[in-house]
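Format notes (please read before filing issues)

Several people have asked whether sequences and structure tokens are stored in separate files. They are not. Every record keeps both together, in the order shown below: the sequence lines, then the token lines. Line labels are part of the format and must not be stripped during preprocessing.
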Amino acid sequence: MNFVTSFLYRVCEWIMRLAYVNILWIAFSFVGLLVSGVFPATIAMFSVVRKWLMDQPDTPIFKTFWQSYKKEFFKGNVIGWIFVAIGYVLYIQNYVIMFSNDPLIQISKYAFFLLVLLFSLVALYLFPTYVHYNVRLYQVVKNSFLIVIINPINNIIMILGLVLFYYIFLIIPQLAVFFGGSVIAYIIMWSCYQSFLNIDKKKKGRLVSK
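Then the structure lines:
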């Protein structure tokens, strides 16, 4: 009975933590009127989740979130909107490929789709790499790319986890309101953190964690 009680307590505790972080993420995104708030709020959320994965479950959530939100507000928006701009360019290019009858363009679509896949994976690694390593913005992108290339298994695990919870949220959309952001952040950060640990063990690169 003590084991069951302890287990249920831990489950409820994690449910509350995830819900709390998700509420903070939504609230602080709107504090910045979404346009300037969503990226620093996302970085702050990943910062909290990273602390949990580093065996620091008692980290003060609001304090950690708020400090990260303030500190990374400008740089978070810079790197976030750069990737949004790149994504928009790829979206336009995809539109052109889909409706073009040019044989050369049609041949190039396979390489383009590979580029889109690579860009999407790098984007998933972007914020975890940003909060974990103390490097410049351009190095965040470079390191995200390198980590994607050398850790294919973790990429697959991440994608499977995201697909699973995507369908769960489709079946029970109410869960997305309370856990959509935080659960996705946890899945991504957990997968990325395993990659970071593998890199540290193999001593690849000269990355310095925060």
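For reference, the curators noted about this record: The first helix runs from residue 2 to 31. The chain has a mean pLDDT of 91.
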